[in-house]
């Protein structure tokens, strides 16, 4: 708790900046720049009547990468994003990371290159080459996503994130349990059978529904990324639909059947959906005709291994929670004998 709490304060502060910075810019545009923010930073769009360009004339990817790395030898490219390749402002964004500088986005940073000439068009988002304003805004993204310091920082973020999630979930459960103990003492002194208040039952149900609903939703979207890729028109929309359907469904179920029973149900659901991540990868290997993406890289196998460990952890938690539900104190919101919907 001592370590994770400051970390999550950083998460909360930086989330406000990266989630709402467009809104801040909009307000600044209206109040300070008189609606001319976009034109003030425009680099021009080139002649609109220029004839279409032939993608056959584009430089090979190796030369584009060389143009980007000439600016920063420590920059490690990870992907190429081609934009408007037949237009007058054809651009390739060379995305990548640089362990010696912070990256302005979760995907890293990028340098914009002309795919036909290899000329660098924009390096404002290249790690280590950002202007002061971009560096300030980018630092909030970097602090939130851990896109600085290389692999050691990413592992530290992972450990602190998992510890913080457990602190939040376990801390709420303990808070609810202390209310039971307090109510039991007050009821015993007054000769009244203890009964959990409605607000305490609501807190318990919300804790279970929100926390486990988020886990279930994330696992499902990872699985859906493989099953739906190339089969639906708007994959991002499907990710949102699936996630929020499971998330709000879990919350509704927790309030419907109570915290105790729903915790067992949702933990088993989380285990099943998390197990489905490596199971889908295995199925993609065994049945290539399904057309699902499967890769043997260490990073991909690491995701599957982590999901396998997570599924085992959720299954263990489900079994332990079930024992608590069946055998816990009758006046506890975590007991089936006293469990009520909210």
Structure write-up:
The protein is of the alpha+beta class and 342 residues long. It has two domains: 43-145, no CATH class; 150-327, no CATH class. The protein is built from nine helices and four strands, in the order αααββββαααααα. A hairpin with a 7-residue loop joins strand 1 and strand 2. The longest helix has 41 residues, at 150-190. The two termini are 30 Å apart.
Short descriptors:
4-stranded antiparallel β-sheet, single chain, 342 residues, 61% helix, alpha+beta, 2 domains
Brief digest:
The chain is an alpha+beta fold and 342 residues long. The chain has 9 helices and 4 strands; from the N terminus they run αααββββαααααα. Helix content is 61%, strand content 7%.
Summarize the SSE layout with pairings.
Elements: H1 4-31, H2 37-40, H3 61-71, E1 76-83, E2 91-97, E3 109-113, E4 120-122, H4 132-145, H5 150-190, H6 198-228, H7 235-257, H8 259-286, H9 298-327
Helix pairs in contact: 1-4, 1-5, 5-6, 6-7, 6-8, 7-8, 8-9
The average pLDDT score comes to 83
Number of domains: 2
Distance between the amino and carboxyl termini: 30 Å
Number of helices: 9
For the largest beta-sheet, the strand count, sense and barrel status come to:
4 strands, antiparallel
Class per helix and strand makeup = alpha+beta
Total beta-strand segments: 4
- Write the element-wise H/E pattern from the N-terminal end onward: HHHEEEEHHHHHH
Q: List low-pLDDT spans.
A: none
Strand order, main sheet: write it out. 1-2-3-4
> Helical percent range?
55-70%
Please state the CA-atom Rg, rounded to the nearest Å.
26 Å
Proportion of β residues?
5-15%
Shape: globular
């Amino acid at each position: 708790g001592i370590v994770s709490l400051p970390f999550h304060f950083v998460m909360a502060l930086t989330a406000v900046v990266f989630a709402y910075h467009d809104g801040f810019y909009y307000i600044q545009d209206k109040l300070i720049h008189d609606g001319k923010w976009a034109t003030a930073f425009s680099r021009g769009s080139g002649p609109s009547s220029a004839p279409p360009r032939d993608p056959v004339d584009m430089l090979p990817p190796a030369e584009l990468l060389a143009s980007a790395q000439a600016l920063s030898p420590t920059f490690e490219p990870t992907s190429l994003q081609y934009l408007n390749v037949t237009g007058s402002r054809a651009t390739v964004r060379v995305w990548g990371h640089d362990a010696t500088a912070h990256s302005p986005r979760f995907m890293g940073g990028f340098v914009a290159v002309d795919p036909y000439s290899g000329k660098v068009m924009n390096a404002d988002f290249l790690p280590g080459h950002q202007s002061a304003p971009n560096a300030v805004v980018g630092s909030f993204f970097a602090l939130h996503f851990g896109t600085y310091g290389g692999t050691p920082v990413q592992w530290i973020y992972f450990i602190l994130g998992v510890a913080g999630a457990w602190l939040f979930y376990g801390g709420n459960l303990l808070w609810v349990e202390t209310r039971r103990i307090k109510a039991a003492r007050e009821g015993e002194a007054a000769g009244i059978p203890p009964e959990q208040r409605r607000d305490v039952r609501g807190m318990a149900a919300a804790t279970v529904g929100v926390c486990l609903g988020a886990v279930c939703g994330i696992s499902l979207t990872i699985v859906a990324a493989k099953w739906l890729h190339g089969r639906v028109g708007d994959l991002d929309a499907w990710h949102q639909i699936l996630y929020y359907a499971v998330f709000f469904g879990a919350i509704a179920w927790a309030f419907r059947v109570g915290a105790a029973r729903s915790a067992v149900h949702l933990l088993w659901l989380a285990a099943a959906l998390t197990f489905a991540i490596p199971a889908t990868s295995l199925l993609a290997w065994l049945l290539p005709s399904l057309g699902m993406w499967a890769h043997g890289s260490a990073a991909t196998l690491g995701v599957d291994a982590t999901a396998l460990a997570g599924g085992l952890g959720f299954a263990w938690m489900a079994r332990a929670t079930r024992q608590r539900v069946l055998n816990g104190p009758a006046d506890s919101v975590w007991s089936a004998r006293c469990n009520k919907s909210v």
